[in-house]
Amino acid sequence: MSEELATTTYAVREPFEQAVRSLRKALSDGNLKLAGELDMSSRIRQRLLVDTAPCRVLFVTAEPGVFEELGADPCAAALTPLHVVISARGSQTEVHLLRTLSDHQQRMDRPTLAAFRSLQIRIAEAVERIGMRCRFGS
Description:
- There is one protein chain.
- This protein is an alpha+beta fold.
- It has a single domain (about 5-135), classed as TATA-Binding Protein (2-Layer Sandwich).
- The chain has four helices and six strands; from the N terminus they run βαβαβαββαβ.
- The protein has helices at about 15-30, 40-50, 65-70, 110-130; strands at about 5-10, 30-40, 55-60, 80-90, 90-100, 130-135.
- The chain has a six-stranded antiparallel β-sheet with strand order 2-3-4-5-1-6.
- A hairpin with a 2-residue loop joins β4 and β5 (about 90-100).
């Protein structure tokens, strides 16, 4: 049995800052909301005095009411936002998404799990408008 990676990676053929702008627009066009952003490379530089390639974490959620529309418990929205990592890689940029949630221990009801999967799919569709999925190990 082969091990599956925890993330899906997309390559964007744009420099980092341009790719960040493109991703923000793609998410917005997909009716997704940017709840916040963390500049990881700046934080590492400030705390550890180490330079790293640019890297940001975007905190993405759906517009208010989406969880209820999908029949999920409204409290499920408290488990968002989902994290999207965007990092420089030479003259290109990579976008990393966590793979679809699995609920092996059945802690979420089906409508809530479906709502999270729907949100993940919407984020992936937005990213696919600006980048191409990378296939590692194939």
